[in-house]
């Protein structure tokens, strides 16, 4: 009688153990952390040296580095140091800097390739988040990879959904970045 | 008697449970997904504007952006938007675009550093795959890292083995990319 | 009596099994592998072609590619092929090459963004390690992400702490890289 009740407990525990194990093997798609931030890019155009946060540093033959190239800017590489804010206001207090590069890489539409980092330094978040991915600008939302992080984001991985929140001529754009981390440590 | 047979079942289940747990801890080297694709790069050389899929956008002092630099192209950066095909035929229907950059980074042999993405858009695959790594071009095969993905390749990681499948002067090359994913979600 | 002792064994094993499972879910912060290496960068300045291991390949409008740009080199992109050594001596036998690029990305202090790989080829280590991250140069130590690896570093991930071990004018610098791998396969 006693042995039977132990056996029952055993099977219950075993089922819990196996099913939890299975859940891990499948890995779950619910983020373990989420964060939404905005960053603001003001590209140098020859007249805004004081305000500009990015600069064209490379261009294809025939193009210069003051004006974005023809053919959908194909071949332009820009380096940036953009303020990050909690909301969509350029003048909100920055919580960090978005730093790295983007390059325009299609001749017949706007697409970019991004390699950059968020360096966060606020009361809420300290550390860096590293991004790599393709950015087909004409899509409402684009997914890029969060390939690593440090500090509060130690070893994190995830997917960031990027949206163009504002676009003013070829001088200012604002990106909204919805980060979903699926590996949090 | 009954207790004994339950006990036997228990040990069998326990062994299965422990060994499967152990297999996970070791992590297995069998890919959870495999994919072979080709991409085709036609570099702009001053005469092929209509066909070119890539352009030299940066070069060291003394070199221009029409012709690849001397010293094994050291310091050249190229931006590309190359068609991806299922086989080695440039004229096969593309299943996506390989977009990003490569840079030549040795003075006494051909090596490159790659940062690019596959943007796949076919009936079989929707999504992006992000690559980073060193490419010692003179080796028959080179391994680079798959650092993330989106869509069908959500959160994937793996290793891609790159082979130069064709090389015609300094105008066209074709790369075969054998992707092996070891984290699939 | 016999059933009872089996039951006792069962609970002991179950506790071991559950606690080991829990340890995995939390993931541990102890590295599974550690490695310290140095690399040496000699930037081309117009007079040291034979020795230089890196070159400025991109610069903002108004700057050239022989001398690092003003404003904390904002917008300069350098491509490098630097020897890696086991100690801090430039003339020690190299165990591999650090290859890729760095770009300066702030106007009012020194910060860089790094995308590069270690290609190791020694008796102790064969394979590549891929790095991405922000490098705020004025900090004593900076953490960047190890986003993948091949060969002996197959699928590895981790964090690398970078320190400027020497800095001589704007011609030579030496970085110490303390790699801690937390996913080792």
From TrEMBL, chains A, B, C:
Superkingdom per UniProt: Eukaryota
Coiled coil (UniProt feature): none
Annotated GO biological process: phenylpropanoid biosynthetic process
Principal place of residence: secreted
Signal peptide positions (record): 1-23
Pfam families: Dirigent
UniProt record similarity statement: Belongs to the plant dirigent protein family.
Protein role: Dirigent proteins impart stereoselectivity on the phenoxy radical-coupling reaction, yielding optically active lignans from two molecules of coniferyl alcohol in the biosynthesis of lignans, flavonolignans, and alkaloids and thus plays a central role in plant secondary metabolism.
Protein name per its UniProtKB record: Dirigent protein
Organism: Linum trigynum
Source organism phylogeny: Eukaryota, Viridiplantae, Streptophyta, Embryophyta, Tracheophyta
């Amino acid at each position: 009688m006693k042995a039977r009740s132990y056996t029952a407990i055993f099977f219950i525990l075993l089922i819990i153990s196996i099913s939890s194990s299975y859940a891990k093997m499948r890995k779950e798609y619910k983020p373990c952390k989420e964060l939404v931030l905005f960053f603001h890019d003001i590209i140098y155009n020859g007249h805004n040296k004081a305000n500009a946060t990015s600069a064209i540093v490379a261009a294809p033959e025939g193009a210069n580095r003051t004006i974005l190239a023809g053919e959908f800017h194909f071949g332009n590489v820009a380096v940036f140091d953009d303020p990050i804010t909690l909301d969509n206001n350029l003048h909100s207090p920055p919580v960090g800097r978005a730093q790295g590069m983007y390059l325009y890489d299609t001749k017949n539409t706007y697409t970019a390739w991004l390699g950059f980092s968020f360096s966060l330094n606020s009361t809420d978040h300290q550390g860096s988040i590293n991004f790599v991915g393709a950015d087909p600008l004409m899509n409402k939302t684009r997914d890029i990879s969060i390939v690593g992080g440090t500090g509060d984001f130690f070893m994190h991985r995830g997917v960031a959904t990027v949206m163009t929140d504002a676009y003013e001529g070829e001088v200012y754009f604002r990106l909204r970045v919805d980060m979903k981390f699926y590996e949090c440590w």
